[in-house]
Predict the 3D structure of the following.
Amino acid sequence: MTYPDPTVAAAVSERFVPLRLDLFRDRDVVRPLNVIWTPTLLFADRRGTVHYRSLNFLPPADFLDLLDIGEANVRLRWGEHDRAITLLTAVTDRNPDAPLAPEAIYQRGIATYLKTHSNQELYSVWQGLLDRFPDSIWSRRIP
Amino acid sequence: MGPTWEHSIPIVWLTDWDTALAEARATRRVVLIDVWKDP
C-alpha cells in the first residue's frame, strides 16, 4: 500500500488537506466530480474545483511525484508559478528517469511559459524533454 | 525492527466536503481527495 509509507504519509499530512469520500455513501458530493472508478485521486483548490486527477494508486516513489504534479497543477491556477516550477523540478531532481518525469518536464514548460510568456523559455524546457525522452507521449505533444 | 511503515504517522482524513474546503481556505493548501468505496 502507498499511504502507510512514512514519506508519503508525511507529504500528504503536511502539504494537503486530505479528504476521503465514498463513491456511494457520499454520492451527492461525488457526483459533480465525475468519478467512475475507485480509487480516484483528485487535486482541488479551496473552492473545490478539480484541476488534476489520477486513477488507482502508485508505488510510493511514483506517488510522491504524482503529489508534486497534482499540487503544481492547482498552484498554477492560483498564479503561483514559481511554486509550481519548484514542485515540477523536484520530480526530476529526485529521479531524472522517473516514470512521471516526462509529464513533469512537459508541465514545467507550461509553468515556465505562464510565468515568462517567453516561447524561447518554453521550448528550452521542452527541448530538454525531447532530448531525454524522445519517444514519450509527452514529447509527441510538443508542437 | 519491523517494516518502516509501522512507524509512520497515519494520515488523518477528513470526511466532510465543507470542512475540507474551509481548511484549504484557512491554510492555503491543496485538497487531496481520495474517492474510494467500502470493500
Remarks:
- The interface with chain B takes residues 1, 3-6, 9-10, 12-13, 15-26, 29-30, 33, 35, 38-48, 50, 67, 70-71, 74-75 of chain A (CB under 8 Å).
- The longest strand of chain A covers residues 16-22.
- Chain A has a mean pLDDT of 96.
- Helices of chain A lie at 6-15, 27-30, 60-77, 81-94, 101-116, 119-132.
